[in-house]
């Protein structure tokens, strides 16, 4: 079972990668409007992006079989939120450290409101970051997963997807110039919108509408009637 690796997600290298992700993620979510957003993260120092149109954030730290932060609960149980509670859900490296990847993604989808945005970030399994993670992790290392795998899951769950993007420096670094998108970046970003349910038109019901008629004939009608007689 994957265990939380604080030496990785508290490191300056991951801190730099999180900052690079935020540079790309912020403008992409700037127009999101909602009362509440959910931030599921593996790193304690990962701050939420400043979204001027979003009301409040709930931050939950994911590690192994536990949840911490604004909510303390078991990571093996459903998230303690009602359905469709959040307009934005961010999974920032949370799928790498959870004990149940598919279940956490299912829960993120459940608590996301129709029309809301889902963002997933992680360390790309191909590149120089993967051996660095293996060398610096203690015990069971984080599970690095291809972004296309999550894309397939979200398509199956009827999401509208943007193309996955690679972000950050190609190699682990603790400082230096900020990075944005990069073809060989060490991290990836996947953005998707939860489709709203299609409106089902009601079948029109025929209703007889009586036509108003007076009790007497018009003058022309009376004249025609006399001529006929």
TrEMBL record:
InterPro entries cross-referenced by the UniProt entry: Methyltransf_11 (IPR013216), SAM-dependent_MTases_sf (IPR029063)
SUPFAM superfamilies listed in its UniProt record: S-adenosyl-L-methionine-dependent methyltransferases
Keywords linked to the UniProt accession: Methyltransferase, Transferase
GO molecular function: methyltransferase activity
One Gene Ontology biological process: methylation
Keyword Transferase belongs to the record: yes
Domain Methyltransferase type: 71-120
Record protein name field: Methyltransferase domain-containing protein
């Amino acid at each position: 079972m994957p265990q939380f690796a604080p030496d990785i997600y508290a490191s300056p290298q991951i801190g730099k990668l999180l900052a690079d992700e935020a540079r790309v993620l912020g403008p992409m979510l700037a127009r999101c409007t909602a009362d509440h957003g959910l931030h599921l993260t593996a790193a304690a120092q990962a701050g939420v992006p400043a979204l001027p149109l979003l009301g409040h954030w709930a931050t939950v730290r994911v590690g192994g079989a536990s949840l911490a932060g604004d909510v303390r609960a078991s990571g093996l149980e459903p998230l303690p939120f009602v359905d469709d509670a959040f307009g934005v859900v961010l999974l920032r490296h949370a799928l790498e450290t959870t004990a149940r990847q598919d279940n956490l993604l299912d829960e993120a989808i459940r608590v996301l409101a129709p029309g809301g945005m889902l963002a997933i970030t992680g360390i790309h399994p191909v590149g120089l970051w993967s051996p660095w993670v293996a060398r610096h992790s203690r015990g069971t290392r984080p599970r690095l997963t291809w972004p296309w795998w999550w894309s397939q899951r979200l398509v199956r769950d009827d999401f509208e997807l943007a193309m996955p993007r690679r972000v950050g420096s190609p190699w682990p670094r603790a400082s230096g110039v900020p990075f944005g998108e990069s073809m060989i970046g060490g991290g990836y970003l996947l953005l998707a919108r939860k489709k709203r349910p299609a409106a089902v038109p009601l079948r029109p019901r025929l209703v007889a509408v009586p036509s108003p008629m007076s009790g007497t004939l018009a003058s022309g009608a009376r004249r025609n009637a006399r001529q006929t007689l």
